[in-house]
């Protein structure tokens, strides 16, 4: 009878939930939608005339439909989902609305989602939050209000530039804002496709990962232009203060001109585990090959616009497998991404970063280290499975992988071996720069 109910009355006035995915649930409510943060509920009020009265008599008197949902994109992971606030989605009779008023009336849909869970890790912030938010809302063309569960001010500050490219309206703190917000439609939960990507076959207008990256471009360039203007002003001030007769002073534009001719390589540096312990030697080798080298050390407080600027202008990025590799999203399609893969991380490196990088149009090079390049080589017997057969260790469970290979391992690159990858990346970049210059001159 419930299926007949949906069929007869149509979509408006009902809750339609898609629970078929392993990663996420998404429910849609259309009609008179009202929030009630005190009860962690979203109500949908509807008319109960005619056929509906017959149907409502078969269910609870005051509720025509009741769904529960935790709006976070790691549905299969019970341990983290248990920490996500649950929402009650309830369809009620319209004649019960006499005592319910709207404090704020919106004429655009709402998207409800949580910034709880693994928020605080940049991979999860993009994979479980920002990318699904784009996937779910981009077809609304910024005419949407984001309603956030487990609202964090720091998250809003960090991702505000992106949010402003996805919505024309300020986000709402669901639990902190006690007012009743009324919407014509609500999407509760976020859609997600795969690791750090957008599947065009599932998107309206066949949007893809490059379209998402274009949103990042729009989000960060106003801030980047401000940074460039500040640097140019500082350079002019230094120039005006420097005696023109000083032979040790070199014109700033001349220096910039020299550097611009070289392919730019960015090294994403790590502190703590999975650090490259001979990083200084790596920098020198890359410079000797012909790269202009910039070392970037992102952390939780790093301004994303500055990281975006560094990687957007780069030809090659080098980094050791870890959450910071998420920043490959900031690179221009056609650039080179070299991921250093420590022992025991082959599958994760390929699944979470290698394959998504290719989908973005990057030239991906995976560099799997040898046991001698791992700090574990000095801690274990040479025949220990930790060195000889990492897959057998990983099969014991996530905690073994995390403790041994993620938290307990650093990398000392075999520079002669790694040099081959850098030379290949350099030659590729030089050819690409030459081709771009040729096209621009035509």
UniProtKB/TrEMBL annotation:
<dbReference type="GO" id="GO:0016763">
    <property type="term" value="F:pentosyltransferase activity"/>
</dbReference>
<keyword id="KW-0732">Signal</keyword>
<protein>
    <recommendedName>
        <fullName>Glycosyltransferase 61 catalytic domain-containing protein</fullName>
    </recommendedName>
</protein>
<dbReference type="InterPro" id="IPR007657">
    <property type="entry name" value="Glycosyltransferase_61"/>
</dbReference>
<keyword id="KW-0808">Transferase</keyword>
<keyword id="KW-0328">Glycosyltransferase</keyword>
<dbReference type="InterPro" id="IPR049625">
    <property type="entry name" value="Glyco_transf_61_cat"/>
</dbReference>
<feature type="domain" description="Glycosyltransferase 61 catalytic">
    <location>
        <begin position="253"/>
        <end position="338"/>
    </location>
</feature>
<feature type="signal peptide">
    <location>
        <begin position="1"/>
        <end position="16"/>
    </location>
</feature>
<dbReference type="GO" id="GO:0000139">
    <property type="term" value="C:Golgi membrane"/>
</dbReference>
<keyword id="KW-0325">Glycoprotein</keyword>
<dbReference type="Pfam" id="PF04577">
    <property type="entry name" value="Glyco_transf_61"/>
</dbReference>
<feature type="region of interest" description="Disordered">
    <location>
        <begin position="235"/>
        <end position="257"/>
    </location>
</feature>
